[in-house]
Amino acid sequence: MSNEDLLLLDFWVSPFCMRVKIALAEKGLSYESKEEDLFGGKSELLLKSNPIYQKVPVLLHNGKPLNESAIIVGYIDEKWPSPPLLPACAYGRSQARFWADYIDKKLFDAACTVWRSPGEAVEVAKKDFIEVLKVLEEALGENNFFGGETFGFVDIVAIPMAFWFYASEKFGNFTVEEECPKLSAWIKRSMQRESVAKVLPDPEKVYDFVIMFRKMQGIE
Amino acid sequence: MAEVKLLGAWGSPFSRRVEMALKLKGVEYEYIEEDLADKSPLLLKCNPIHKKVPVLLHNGKTIAESLVILEYIDETWKTNPIFPEDPYDKAMARFWAKFLDDTCMPAIWKIMWSKENQREKAIEEAIQHLKTLENELKDKKFFGGETIGLVDIVANFIGFWLGAVQEASGMELVNKENFPVLCRWIDEYVNCSVVKQNLPPRDELIAFLQPRFSASSWKY
């Protein structure tokens, strides 16, 4: 355990914050955490540390702020190289970055669109979401993790999204297990890791959050 | 058979970024021009997910997404590094690259596609982001310091394409009065030899862009 000055500006349900927490846990790093009230009023520290986007997560290392979850995870991996989250070879790393980028561009939005869509639009949103899941399932192949034999960068980027799938499943009336059994197995396998298990929120609580959020946005 | 091949498009800033990086490092490569209106079987095979350029082929392996390719190039060919060495500085470079691609550029394009009654707001937003970018530059010669680095390469759209877009559309977003620091950087940038060699012919680019602005819906 190291005694680095690490402070995470956090929000309990944010999958992006979860990525950082999992990465820190994988490296055995202890840190302080400050829960932000994103709806009530963002803290001065958050607004000062991330003036452009004003979003969490923010990781402050010795007072210096880092923003954007995938970039933060990359920093953690480079600053504390053991155990490595990325493959050793440049090509393997490029593939990991490509999939992390794909997940960032497609996965969360596709999952949320299912529960954000009113009425009949849900069916289209569900189809799009399942398509994204199938692409990822194909990328996973027969491996235990996206990192191959070991849990790594892409797994960390993807697994927090899985806690939001329950909400999509309920609104879309389907299960990820039925549509993508290999991906579902990967989710279960990843959730058994200590670094993931100790930060994951209760999917029911995430679902309640989604209900509240939908009400706030006036979605029927 | 060339060891390194690049599938690109002459007018694409994303494609030209990769060429800039390869030339900076003295890497020999075969360039293959793609007709984006009629994508080749090779492109569709090499980038089935996004079907876009640029795609780098190295020893038969393919890498897509310009930022991912730039990381790969820097890790594979060590001459003239593009990324800073210090992990924090590297994270900041990645942050600004992402800001350019995810926030700055889309804001500029949004102006072009916006309806007349939304244009004012779109322009305000783009100017705000350009100001943020200018503030990051401060009194540095380049974003990378004394020599061009990742952020300068990724900012090629601002450095060159923006000028062509302004001329094609008749709209002036950036000039020496409102953006003195950014304009100073643009001058340094386009006169930099590795940049100069990797820009599309200005007249051709303007001619290519002009039809987008000749529709009656665009009035400026």
Automatic annotation (TrEMBL), chain A:
<dbReference type="InterPro" id="IPR036249">
    <property type="entry name" value="Thioredoxin-like_sf"/>
</dbReference>
<dbReference type="InterPro" id="IPR004045">
    <property type="entry name" value="Glutathione_S-Trfase_N"/>
</dbReference>
<dbReference type="Pfam" id="PF13410">
    <property type="entry name" value="GST_C_2"/>
</dbReference>
<dbReference type="InterPro" id="IPR010987">
    <property type="entry name" value="Glutathione-S-Trfase_C-like"/>
</dbReference>
<comment type="similarity">
    <text>Belongs to the GST superfamily.</text>
</comment>
<protein>
    <recommendedName>
        <fullName>Glutathione S-transferase</fullName>
        <ecNumber>2.5.1.18</ecNumber>
    </recommendedName>
</protein>
<dbReference type="GO" id="GO:0006749">
    <property type="term" value="P:glutathione metabolic process"/>
</dbReference>
<dbReference type="Pfam" id="PF02798">
    <property type="entry name" value="GST_N"/>
</dbReference>
<keyword id="KW-0963">Cytoplasm</keyword>
<dbReference type="InterPro" id="IPR036282">
    <property type="entry name" value="Glutathione-S-Trfase_C_sf"/>
</dbReference>
<comment type="function">
    <text>Is involved in the conjugation of reduced glutathione to a wide number of exogenous and endogenous hydrophobic electrophiles.</text>
</comment>
<dbReference type="InterPro" id="IPR040079">
    <property type="entry name" value="Glutathione_S-Trfase"/>
</dbReference>
<feature type="domain" description="GST C-terminal">
    <location>
        <begin position="89"/>
        <end position="209"/>
    </location>
</feature>
<dbReference type="InterPro" id="IPR045074">
    <property type="entry name" value="GST_C_Tau"/>
</dbReference>
<dbReference type="GO" id="GO:0004364">
    <property type="term" value="F:glutathione transferase activity"/>
</dbReference>
<keyword id="KW-0808">Transferase</keyword>
<dbReference type="InterPro" id="IPR045073">
    <property type="entry name" value="Omega/Tau-like"/>
</dbReference>
<dbReference type="GO" id="GO:0005829">
    <property type="term" value="C:cytosol"/>
</dbReference>
<feature type="domain" description="GST N-terminal">
    <location>
        <begin position="4"/>
        <end position="84"/>
    </location>
</feature>
TrEMBL record, chain B:
<dbReference type="InterPro" id="IPR036249">
    <property type="entry name" value="Thioredoxin-like_sf"/>
</dbReference>
<dbReference type="Pfam" id="PF00043">
    <property type="entry name" value="GST_C"/>
</dbReference>
<dbReference type="GO" id="GO:0004364">
    <property type="term" value="F:glutathione transferase activity"/>
</dbReference>
<dbReference type="GO" id="GO:0006749">
    <property type="term" value="P:glutathione metabolic process"/>
</dbReference>
<dbReference type="Pfam" id="PF02798">
    <property type="entry name" value="GST_N"/>
</dbReference>
<dbReference type="InterPro" id="IPR045073">
    <property type="entry name" value="Omega/Tau-like"/>
</dbReference>
<dbReference type="InterPro" id="IPR004045">
    <property type="entry name" value="Glutathione_S-Trfase_N"/>
</dbReference>
<feature type="domain" description="GST N-terminal">
    <location>
        <begin position="2"/>
        <end position="81"/>
    </location>
</feature>
<keyword id="KW-0808">Transferase</keyword>
<dbReference type="InterPro" id="IPR045074">
    <property type="entry name" value="GST_C_Tau"/>
</dbReference>
<dbReference type="InterPro" id="IPR036282">
    <property type="entry name" value="Glutathione-S-Trfase_C_sf"/>
</dbReference>
<dbReference type="InterPro" id="IPR004046">
    <property type="entry name" value="GST_C"/>
</dbReference>
<protein>
    <recommendedName>
        <fullName>glutathione transferase</fullName>
        <ecNumber>2.5.1.18</ecNumber>
    </recommendedName>
</protein>
<dbReference type="InterPro" id="IPR040079">
    <property type="entry name" value="Glutathione_S-Trfase"/>
</dbReference>
<dbReference type="GO" id="GO:0005737">
    <property type="term" value="C:cytoplasm"/>
</dbReference>
<dbReference type="InterPro" id="IPR010987">
    <property type="entry name" value="Glutathione-S-Trfase_C-like"/>
</dbReference>
<comment type="similarity">
    <text>Belongs to the GST superfamily.</text>
</comment>
<feature type="domain" description="GST C-terminal">
    <location>
        <begin position="86"/>
        <end position="213"/>
    </location>
</feature>
